[in-house]
């Protein structure tokens, strides 16, 4: 019998078989892995390879599943870490922005927190008479004047705790009533807030505590201490801004100073000589100058003289011989509105403005008076601090301040 050549598989049959095997692979995805096949593979070879692949790829898939899960967990971890770090970065940036904002706007912790319970029931302070004996023991006096002091959480004591050596009280007198009420305007007046309750009585109480009469203080020099323990020689200036008729109101102010006067705690002038006391009283507003100077031999209150009328050429070395109406025997402060006398400040004090200030300082100091400007720039904080620094540098004696915290930090 003649030999016949082996039956060959046609190309069409190969494609049919390949499609069948491909379909089987898709039906068993967990146990097979797709592998490209060439048309030159034999039917038997393809079938055998497919069977071997079936079993080998199944075991490999089972080994790869945990690896894929581990990789996915690692990706989740990395993603979570990145988001956590991003959130922390945002929080840190917000916190930094708040710190900068608080610094720019002057928002710091309130030093008056020690007065948080002042006036509350069962604290012993209900009658406006809570005067701690030691809250001033380490306070450093600074040359600042507590403008509108009666606005403070605790008038007088807030200023003293900040170190201010000057406070201001606006007083009002009504016909048929000898009481001097304290407030910025008529709407702010109350029966309890008076010149005596907010200033005279507290000062008497505070100075009595600072000057106890004991066997250890027999010398008079040991019983003439001021309100500041670290500087007992420092006098406190009490500026009384008379809001009602001066001719009627000022005599009442002098009467109500008697508790301080009788104890020898007022700065006074006798026969042309100034004797410094623990409290120096200065009249401003509607205070009549002629009533202050009426007694030529003795007075224990002084005038707030007009600073703008004292300007002298700061660049001149020529002696000034012009007679002076205001001097240290009748006045203590020399004050004026900063905006009116010096002008508005935009980016900083100009050379002409600095010259004006130096002329005011020269004229006031020649008369023996302390220079004070009111109506100072309050904002922006950086501009205000720059003006404060310039005033202190050029010899202004008292900074008129509303922001006690910034003044006490002396960051200007």
UniProtKB/TrEMBL annotation:
Membrane-spanning segments: 73-94
Extent of Basic and acidic residues compositional bias: 52-63
Chain spans, region Disordered: 1-65
Matching SUPFAM superfamilies: PLC-like phosphodiesterases
Entry keyword set: Membrane, Transmembrane, Transmembrane helix
Superkingdom of the organism of origin: Eukaryota
Biased composition annotated in UniProt, kind: Polar residues: 41-50
InterPro entries associated with the record: AIM6_PI-PLC-like_dom, HAT_RTT109-like, PLC-like_Pdiesterase_TIM-brl
Sequence similarity: Belongs to the AIM6 family.
Name this polypeptide is given: Altered inheritance of mitochondria protein 6
Record organism: Apiospora phragmitis
């Amino acid at each position: 019998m003649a030999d016949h050549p082996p039956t060959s598989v046609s190309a069409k049959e190969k494609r049919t078989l390949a499609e069948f095997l491909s379909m089987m692979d898709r039906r068993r995805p967990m146990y097979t892995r797709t592998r490209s096949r060439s048309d030159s593979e034999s039917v038997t070879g393809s079938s055998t390879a497919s069977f071997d692949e079936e079993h080998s790829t199944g075991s490999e898939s089972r080994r790869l599943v945990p690896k894929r899960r581990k990789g996915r967990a690692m990706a989740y971890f990395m993603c979570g870490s990145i988001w956590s770090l991003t959130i922390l970065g945002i929080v840190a940036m917000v916190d930094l922005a708040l710190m900068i904002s608080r610094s720019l706007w002057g928002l710091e912790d309130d030093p008056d927190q020690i007065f948080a319970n002042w006036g509350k029931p069962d604290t012993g302070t209900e009658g406006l008479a809570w005067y701690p004996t030691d809250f001033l023991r380490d306070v450093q006096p600074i040359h600042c004047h507590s403008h509108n002091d009666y606005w403070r959480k605790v008038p007088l004591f807030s200023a003293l705790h900040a170190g201010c050596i000057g406070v201001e009280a606006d007083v009002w007198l009504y016909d048929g009533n000898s009481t001097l009420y304290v407030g910025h305007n008529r709407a702010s007046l109350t029966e309890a807030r008076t010149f005596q309750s907010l200033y005279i009585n507290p000062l008497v109480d505070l100075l009595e505590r600072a000057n106890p009469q004991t066997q250890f203080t027999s010398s008079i020099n040991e019983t003439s201490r001021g309100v500041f323990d670290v500087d007992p020689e420092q006098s406190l200036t009490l500026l009384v801004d008379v809001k009602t008729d001066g001719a009627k109101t000022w005599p009442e102010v002098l009467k109500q100073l008697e508790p301080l006067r009788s104890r020898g705690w007022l700065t006074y002038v006798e026969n042309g000589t100034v004797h410094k006391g623990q409290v120096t009283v200065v009249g401003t507003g509607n205070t009549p100058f002629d009533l202050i100077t009426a007694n030529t031999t003795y007075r224990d209150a002084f005038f707030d003289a007009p600073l703008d009328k004292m300007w002298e050429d700061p660049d001149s070395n020529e002696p000034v011989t012009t007679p002076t109406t205001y001097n240290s025997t009748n006045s203590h402060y020399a004050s004026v509105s900063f905006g009116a006398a010096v002008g508005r400040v935009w980016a900083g004090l100009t050379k002409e403005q600095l010259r004006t200030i130096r002329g005011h300082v020269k004229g006031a100091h020649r008369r023996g008076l302390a220079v004070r400007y009111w109506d100072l720039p309050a904002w922006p904080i950086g501009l205000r601090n720059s003006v404060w620094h310039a005033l202190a540098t050029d010899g202004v004696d008292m900074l008129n301040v509303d922001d006690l915290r910034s003044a006490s930090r002396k960051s200007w």
